[in-house]
Amino acid sequence: MIFSYDTVKFPFEKITQSYLGCDDLTLAHKNSPFEQTLAEGTDQAQLLHKKFYNSMDTDSKQLFATIYRQFVREVIFSFYREPILFQRFPTFRVHQPSNIAVFKWHRDRDFNHHPKTVNYFLPVTKAFGTNTFWYQKNNNEESYVPMELDCGQVAQWDGANCRHGNKTNKTNQTRISFDFRILKEKDYDPLVIHKSITQSMAFKIGEYYDIMT
Question: In angstroms, what CA-CA distances link 203 with 40, 99, 166?
């Protein structure tokens, strides 16, 4: 499911531009090119990733964190109307030309995510062709299609069980996006807590998730 949101009320693009010091996010690779083709352990460790997360952490007004939580409360929560767990901070993704954004084709459950988590993809640049991620059209078929969205749109999809990944970006535009996950509280078992494979973060309330009621 793809839906639109109010970019004035939720200015993710403008905040990202401010944090990165870049007016045209599609050209972010011009001043901050990745040093290598992304591999395991490097897809959250490039200069742009560090710059964004550092800006978010040191922002005295907590603009991004505030807008994100407001967005989850006012937009995403409306799909559930029951207690949910939401990813405390979304994952920042960068897909530069001649590169990838995530190193491995996978289903999120392969990385210990609960199979009932729901994924959200929120690009702040146009996501199209080979600069976006590709996913199985049907979970049991080897047929892949691109997740194509404009800034101001969000996709709700089954990343836990649907295999997906990146092709080498053959466009001349960088794609910058955020992804986050939701899990219904009723599906959360505090006695069975797994950790992320890449960062060893526990998928529990107060660490990976916060709760919204």
Answer: 20, 29, 25
